[in-house]
């Protein structure tokens, strides 16, 4: 899937249009869901840079999500910083965490990388769970949203905030698209495909991996900052490893190494999570509404089915179908 | 406090007890990983199911000893079904896909347990024969916890002889070293893998049963133990009995002493230890030479 990728612009355009349509006619609840989708799309795209391009399968990406969220909470609640400055600080904190952790984690590869990043995520989770200055397992509340009164908008309005997050998601997509299209991106893909050959060519492979890890961590921290502003509170659960796993599943569902695929995966996962935990959904399809409280069971089965059946993810499927149509 | 001998004895025994639980859990995970480069994230779920099966056995038969026999067998059976239905078909898939399938199983297992046994925590009584305390080096210590340590040591010795002295053990050791070569010699590695996998599940179930009277049984009890087990595998180096033993011992002790001496750091000490080990020896303390 890496390499020639003729559908990414049309699919990205379709996603933008769909988001626009959904946003325009949306009610309160839909705007909340849209913001959530946009934030998880940012997180999933940043993970896709690692998984799909650099070949570093991380199961601890939620560490940066949580770090960004807590940094935002600390800067706004403790220091009274404006949200914009807090967001920048959150990105910086997440990048710093990624730089320190990256030195350790990029030393290993394969399944070891999965396990050590998993432990990294749990370490961050365990820290926030016990840190009394950050409210321990209760987390922190009272995180404001950005002050947009200068341009006459009110970010506490879900409609405004969801638009903000959608624009942010688009910006992140454009940024990452530039990164993967650059020589740096090409280098990451080359390392993914044949690391020893790239090493033999004299390329400082660890430095490239570390740079990718820091960039992905910084963007993950940005997503974390947005989720803190979105819900107004933070808790250690943001860093729990199931979050990392879900984001990884988003990337797989959508299709690794395509960015728009990761965004598509975020759309599917967030919607699934909302629908499956709603009693009305189960009643609508004629099944007992009690299944709503066991939505994780159904979600787990869907995970497994998707991993087993959809080899290249939704975007990969789309690409294969399109190629077959063009050939015939 | 640190130099008080009573404190040292009790905490060291607590550490040993955790080490033995971690050993029961990590050895199966570690050897399966060594043989097939496959990591089962649902290993903690098997541990949880073992504890819940023990709960049901105790309710039905009113005997802990029946539970000790039945529950691990039940877990091994579940593992065998899982192998036949899913795992066998995805050996050629990338490790990431295998990991993600077992990740999905964690969610399924979590809610399945909630459906069957409810969300409230349970506990089972300590068997009467072990429900007391003995004096160890002048310190009073619960008998049952000593039983866990003794059981762990027994399993360790049995596994050591199983691996070193039996034919299956030889196949497993050879399979960890170079799986393709073993297959080329006409030995059914697949079957050996299946048996090892089931044994690993049985041990995870056993760990669940023996820990049930000490810790409370609740949906989600699988998560924290799973992470510790993974760390043991990473620190010890996957694929070897020695790695699992040393890894369990180190992690069990550091976690126990860490929780007592620096509770605010929680498990951060463990992760720091793992990072340090990986920095010095990226393949763990006792890596098995990977020929393939």
Give structural notes.
The complex is a heterodimer of chains A (328) and B (292). Chain A is an all-alpha fold. Chain A is 73% helix and 1% strand. In chain A, strands 1-2 form a two-stranded antiparallel ribbon. Chain B contains 11 helices and 2 strands. A two-stranded antiparallel ribbon of chain B has the order 1-2. The model of chain B has no long low-confidence stretch (mean pLDDT 84). Chain B has 292 residues and is an all-alpha fold. The termini of chain B are far apart. Chain B has a domain at 20-220. The interface between A and B is large, with 39 and 42 residues.
Radius of gyration of chain B, whole Å: 19 Å
Low-confidence sequence ranges of chain A: none
Total strands of chain A: the figure is: 2
Low-confidence segments of chain B:
none
Domains of chain A, number: 1
Q: First CA to last CA of chain B: what distance?
A: 50 Å
Structural class of chain A: mainly alpha
Shape of chain A: globular
Biggest beta sheet attributes of chain A: 2 strands, antiparallel
Show the largest interface: A-B, 39 and 42 residues
CATH third-level topology of chain A: ABC transporter involved in vitamin B12 uptake, BtuC
**Beta-strand percentage range of chain B:** under 5%
Q: Compute the gyration radius of chain A: what is it? A: 20 Å
How are the elements arranged and paired?
The complex is a heterodimer of chains A (328) and B (292).
Chain A: H1 8-24, H2 28-54, H3 62-78, H4 83-105, H5 111-130, E1 140-141, H6 158-181, H7 183-193, H8 195-200, H9 205-231, E2 233-234, H10 241-254, H11 260-276, H12 279-284, H13 295-309, H14 313-327
Antiparallel strand pairs in A: 1-2
Helix pairs in contact in A: 2-6, 2-9, 2-10, 2-11, 3-4, 3-5, 3-9, 4-9, 7-9, 10-11, 10-14, 11-14
Chain B: H1 5-36, H2 43-61, H3 64-85, H4 95-117, E1 133-136, E2 139-142, H5 143-165, H6 167-177, H7 179-184, H8 189-211, H9 221-236, H10 241-261, H11 268-280
Antiparallel strand pairs in B: 1-2
């Amino acid at each position: 899937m890496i390499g020639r990728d003729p559908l990414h612009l049309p699919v990205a355009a379709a996603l933008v249009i769909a988001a626009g349509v959904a946003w325009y006619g949306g009610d309160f609840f839909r705007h909340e869901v849209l913001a959530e989708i946009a934030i998880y799309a940012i997180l999933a795209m940043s993970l896709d840079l690692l998984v799909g391009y650099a070949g570093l399968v991380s199961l601890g990406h939620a560490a940066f999500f949580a770090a960004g969220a807590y940094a935002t909470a600390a800067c706004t609640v403790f220091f009274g910083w404006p949200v914009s400055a807090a967001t920048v600080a959150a990105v910086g904190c997440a990048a710093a965490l990624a730089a320190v952790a990256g030195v350790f984690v990029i030393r290993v590869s394969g399944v070891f990388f999965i396990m050590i990043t998993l432990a990294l995520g749990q370490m961050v989770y365990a820290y926030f769970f016990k840190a009394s200055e950050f409210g321990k397992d209760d987390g922190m509340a009272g995180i404001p949203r950005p002050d947009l009164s200068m341009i006459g908008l009110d970010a506490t309005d879900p409609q405004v905030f969801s638009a903000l997050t959608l624009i942010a998601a688009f910006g992140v997509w454009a940024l990452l698209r530039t990164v993967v299209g650059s020589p740096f991106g090409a280098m990451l893909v080359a390392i993914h495909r044949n690391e020893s050959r790239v090493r033999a060519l004299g390329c400082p492979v660890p430095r490239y991996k570390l740079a990718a890890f820091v960039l992905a961590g910084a963007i993950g921290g940005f997503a974390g900052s947005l989720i803190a502003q979105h819900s107004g509170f933070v808790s250690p659960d943001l860093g729990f490893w199931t979050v990392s796993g879900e984001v990884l599943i988003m990337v797989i569902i959508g299709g690794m190494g395509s960015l728009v695929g990761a965004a598509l995966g975020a759309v599917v996962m967030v919607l699934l999570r909302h629908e499956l935990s709603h009693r009305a959904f189960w009643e609508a399809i004629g099944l007992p509404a009690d299944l709503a409280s066991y939505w994780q069971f159904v979600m787990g089965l869907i995970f497994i089915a998707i991993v087993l059946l959809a080899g290249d993810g939704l975007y990969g499927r789309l690409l294969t179908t399109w190629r077959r149509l063009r050939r015939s | 406090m640190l130099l008080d001998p009573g404190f040292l004895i009790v905490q060291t025994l607590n550490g040993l007890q955790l080490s033995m639980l971690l050993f029961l859990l990590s050895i199966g995970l570690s050897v399966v990983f060594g043989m097939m480069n496959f990591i089962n994230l649902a290993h903690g779920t098997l541990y949880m199911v073992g504890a819940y099966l023990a709960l049901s056995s105790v309710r039905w038969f009113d005997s802990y000893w029946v539970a000790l026999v039945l529950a691990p067998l039940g877990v091994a059976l579940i593992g065998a079904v899982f192998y036949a239905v899913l795992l066998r078909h995805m050996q050629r898939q990338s490790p990431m896909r295998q990991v993600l399938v077992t990740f999905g199983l964690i969610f399924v297992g979590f809610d399945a347990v909630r459906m069957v046994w409810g969300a409230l925590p349970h506990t089972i009584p300590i068997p009467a024969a072990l429900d007391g305390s003995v004096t160890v080096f002048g310190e009073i210590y619960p008998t049952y916890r000593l039983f866990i340590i003794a059981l762990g040591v027994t399993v360790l010795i049995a596994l050591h002889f199983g691996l070193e002295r039996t034919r299956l053990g030889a196949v497993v050791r050879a399979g960890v070293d170079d799986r393709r070569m073993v297959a080329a010699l006409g030995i059914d590695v697949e079957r050996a893998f299946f048996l090892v996998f089931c044994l690993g599940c049985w041990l995870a179930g056993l760990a669940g049963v023996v820990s049930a009277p000490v810790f409370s049984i609740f949906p989600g009890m699988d998560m924290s133990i799973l992470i510790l087990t993974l760390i043991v595998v990473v620190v010890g180096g996957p694929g070897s009995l020695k790695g699992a033993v040393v890894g369990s011992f180190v992690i069990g002790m550091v976690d126990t002493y860490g929780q007592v001496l620096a509770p605010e750091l929680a498990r951060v000490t463990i992760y720091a230890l793992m990072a340090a080990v990986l920095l010095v020896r990226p393949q763990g303390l006792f890596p098995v030479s990977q020929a393939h």
